[in-house]
Amino acid sequence: MKLLAPRNTWYPLTWSRNVTRSLARHRILGMDLVVYRGEAGQVIALDDACPHRLAPLSMGKLKGDAIECGYHGMTFGADGRCVRIPGQPVIPQNARVPSYPLREKMGLVWIWPGDPALADPSLIYDLPQFGEAGWHAAEGDALRIETNYLNLADNLCDPAHVSFVHLSTLGNSASEEIPVEHTYGDRGVLVWRWIRNAPPIPLFAKYGNFSGNVDRWHYYDYVAPCIAVIDFGSADAGAIADPADRGKGLRIFACHFITPVDDNVCIDHWLHVRNFALDDADVDQRLHGDFRIAFNEDKEILERIEQVAQARPNVKCIRLAIDAAPQRMRRIVERMVAGEAETRASA
After folding, report:
1. Taking a C-beta distance cutoff of 8 angstroms, is the pair 290, 169 a contact?
2. DSSP letter at 337?
3. Strands 75-76 and 181-184
4. Which of 269, 297, 331, 220 has the alpha carbon at shortest distance from 105?
């Protein structure tokens, strides 16, 4: 199956904290890359195959900002051009490997796999609360999930599953009969619901010290093709009349930045931004533990669904009202991919 993913967009590649002066192999959109930091601290990504015999450059040696292939010593600069062939003074024009535009933001390395001329850094996703006074950001993990990245995106456009999958952390039965609403645009979908005057979910019961029922919300904000940010929180029942005032309650942005590894694997780079316990490292770790439980629950069910789907390739699933937003999400991605194909054809 061909991976349905646009190229002219920014994708999360890995955590910035993982990129060092050592050569590391990363896979995205079915492409293998060698990634490292240059001497000035910049992140560099090249195709991980020497054009001579296809030896992985990640098996070579880093020399300054260049990589020496471990098979015959061909050396490639940070721009992918060959700068040395041992025993051969003339370097062919085609002795080069692809290089890719990269930027660092929100603790992540972002890569543009499409036309480099279109790689506008201002298009990288920005969460205003990240780094803003009154908010605290905590980096999480990189969760590998054996499923197509769009299946994870389905999950992250779907508040309804929380009432059944995450009862120990993020949900409870009070939300089961509450319908979800959504709006959409050219590049994204927003799905939400409010649960009024109900018991707090386990996570907020732990950190909010609520004495009674709460009003709580979920806003699932998907930005095509690979970003989902869940704005959720709680306040004492009746304390927030206007949904725009939800910053008055305990509020968390759970950010999911998805790397499509290939057609059958994705990586969920997750972090959270919160408006409470701003300087409490212990709360960071406790929340990380809660999120690991919840996100591994997603991983388990998504991977089992993938196994069943592969065993039953001809089954057509029924659609429910809650599927409207995920279907919108997929159509947005399909339009992005089709638009790129039309541009290439016209060129």
Report:
1. yes
2. H
3. unpaired
4. 269
Question: What's the half-sphere exposure (Cβ side, CA atoms, 13 Å) at 28?
Answer: 28
Tokens encoding 182: 């959504």
Rounded distance between C-alpha atoms, residue 269 and residue 277, angstroms: 23
CB 120 within 8 A of CB 9: no
Task: Write the DSSP assignment of 298-330 as a string of letters.
Answer: HHHHHHHHHHHHHH-TT------GGGHHHHHHH
Q: Cα-flanking dihedrals φ and ψ of residue 148, to 5°?
A: -65, 145
Distance (Å, whole) CA 231 – CA 289: 19
User: What pLDDT is stored for residue 297 in this prediction?
Assistant: 94
Q: What distance lies between CA 37 and its chain's CA centroid?
A: 22
Distance from C-alpha of 248 to C-alpha of 237, rounded to nearest angstrom: 12
Question: pLDDT category, 164, cuts 50, 70, 90?
Answer: confident
DSSP 221-289: EEETTTEEEEEEEEEETTS-SSGGGGGGSEEEEEEEEEEEEETTEEEEEEEEEESSSTT-HHHHHHHHH
Question: Which tokens hold the place of 25?
Answer: 């192999």
- CA–CA gap between residue 146 and residue 152 (Å, rounded): 10
Q: Please, are residues 301 and 295 in contact by the beta-carbon 8 Å criterion?
A: no
Q: Residue type for 125, please?
A: Y
For residue 179, the 8-state DSSP code is P
* For range 263-286, the mean pLDDT: 97
Integer Cα distance of 95 and 247 in angstroms: 55
What confidence tier does 176 reach under pLDDT thresholds 50, 70, 90?
confident
pLDDT surpassing 90 at residue 114: yes
Enter the DSSP assignment of 122.
G
pLDDT band of residue 172 (cuts 50, 70, 90) is confident
Structure tokens that stand for 32 in this block? 């293998």
Q: Which residues pair with 235 in a beta bridge?
A: 215
